[in-house]
Amino acid sequence: MDDWYPFWLSLRVATIATLVAGTLGISLAYLLAKGRFRGRGLLEAIVTLPIVLPPTVLGYYLLTNLGVNSPVGRAWESVFGEPLVFTVTAAILAAAISALPFCVRTGRAAIEAVDPRLEAAARVAGLSEWRVAMRVTIPVARRGLAAGVALGFARALGDFGATVMVAGNIPGRTQTLPIAVYDAVQANDQTTARTGALLLGGIAVVVLLGVNRFSRVKP
Amino acid sequence: MTAHSPLIVDASASSGAFTLTTQFEAHPGITVLFGPSGSGKSLTLATIAGLLRPTTGTIVLLDSVVADATAKLHVSTQDRRVGMVAQHGALFPHLTPLDNVSIAVRAGTRSQRRTDARHLLQEVGAEGLERRSTTSLSGGEQQRIALARALAGDPQLLLLDEPFTALDQPTRVSLRKLVRRIVDDRNVPAVVVTHDLDDVAALADRIVLYQPGRTTTQHDATPNHPAELARILGLIHRA
Fold first, then answer.
1. Surface-to-core class of residue A218, CB atoms within 10 Å of its CB (0-12 exposed, 13-18 middle, 19+ buried)
2. C-beta of residue B57 within 8 angstroms of C-beta of residue B10
3. CB distance A139–B94 less than 8 Å?
4. Domains of chain B, residue spans
5. Is B39:B59 a contact under the CB 8 Å cutoff?
6. Using a CB-CB distance cutoff of 8 angstroms, which residues of chain B are in contact with residue A139?
């Protein structure tokens, strides 16, 4: 593989996207696990949508909602001086939204699995609800939360459809590794395609092995 | 009702389809709630601790109303200043024994809270366990730590929910002595839930009897007279 830009871009995009999706995802997971409010089912459905939607459809919605003619896109351009779409930021956004449901669903299951007697003990011990969450619930659920974030990272790293729709396929700018693999196959550049596929496959296997390890070991 | 009863419970509470109606008054010292499993004793403790709202009635803790269903008054668990020990300790598995206790100390800097926690661990005979892995502790050690944690908030009432059930006989005996000593030394009232007659004999200053879903009678105990105790508990017929 001559050009390593797509690999480093993919790592950067996936890492930042995972930070965003992990923070937001764990918060949403906590809200869905503990909150009793109207519209909880709807919120859960919306957050899960990226798993079931074709990535290109997800990308289409992002493009129409963030594009230069959309209110969000216009507001972004007036603040940052350049459009949001077809940039690395757009790629990060697409990857983060693809990763979010994995963080939320796995994280929610982990939070719901925390023994409620521990949380009761924490309240009796005088911890505020915020400290119960931060000092007991989330630390006890940490392995499941980490597993969800790891799955989210793998998903973010591997996204093709949403990214190509909203960030485009600009070599040296927004071309991530999965897109570079596609391009290489189209151009009959087997070496690049093989190396890219091997890298993405290898990282995915490592992440899944790690996830299995997280889920096996008890807290 | 006496003017300075540490705890007056006159309330109903529900959990799923189960409804409990309970009425009793704790005295200084140890009040034992005795009855079969599933009679609502633990539900009573949860309601006293404020983990559950009573559906009707009131709970008065040291002369202040902490729950009143009619007035929709509910003092939060955090503000009731009770200490609680559950059947299996419910220690925080990700924290060391020392941190399990220091997290419950309410005032002071981090190092002051740790110092307090060390003293509490000494008080319950758990010195040397500060840095051990919490999950590797024996049942008796876990209950000692849980007791230290319950004391860390300087509680006005201790609630012990079947605290000795999971333990072997010698450990039970020594932990009963420890609970007795703490209650006497600190002059803190305690409510102990149990279905074990030995707990009643060893600890009760006052006995509240439970049948499924309700309290029946309450008595000042005379634990030194087994026959009297047995009569109270209805185990033998009155002569």
1. exposed
2. yes
3. yes
4. 1-81+155-239, 89-154
5. no
6. 92, 94
Residue A188 DSSP symbol? T
Q: Which residues in chain A (105-144) have CB-CB distances under 8 A to chain B?
A: 115, 117-118, 120-128, 135-136, 139-140, 142
Structural tokens at position B45: 């403790």
Amino acid at B151: L
CA-CA distance, A169 to A162, in Å (whole number)?
Answer: 11
Query: Three-class SS of residue A127?
Result: coil
Can you give the pLDDT of all 239 residues of chain B as single tens digits? Answer: 444 688 999 999 998 888 888 888 988 899 999 888 888 899 999 999 999 999 999 999 998 999 999 999 999 999 999 999 998 889 999 999 999 999 999 988 999 999 999 999 999 999 999 999 999 999 999 999 999 999 999 999 999 999 998 899 999 999 999 999 999 999 999 999 998 888 988 898 988 888 887 777 676 665 555 566 666 666 544 43
Q: What distance in Å separates the CA atoms of residue B137 and residue B65, rounded to the nearest whole number?
A: 38
Q: Which domains does chain A have, with CATH numbers?
A: 5-216 (1.10.3720.10)
Residue with tokens 């309700």: B214
Distance from CA of B99 to the nearest CA of A (A): 11
Rounded to the nearest angstrom, the minimum Cα separation between A111 and chain B is 15
What fold is seen in the domain B1-81+155-239? Rossmann fold (3.40.50)
Residue-wise pLDDT for B19-43, tens only, equals 888 888 988 899 999 888 888 899 9
Q: What ipTM was reported for this prediction?
A: 0.88
Q: Do A121 and B90 touch (CB under 8 A)?
A: yes
Yes or no: say if A129 and B78 are a contact pair by the CB < 8 Å rule: no
Cα–Cα distance for residue pair B132/B111, rounded to 1 Å? 19
C-beta of residue A96 within 8 angstroms of C-beta of residue A155: no
List, in order, residues 6 or more apart from B171 with CB less than 8 Å away: B138, B139, B140, B164
Token pair in block for residue B25: 């008054």
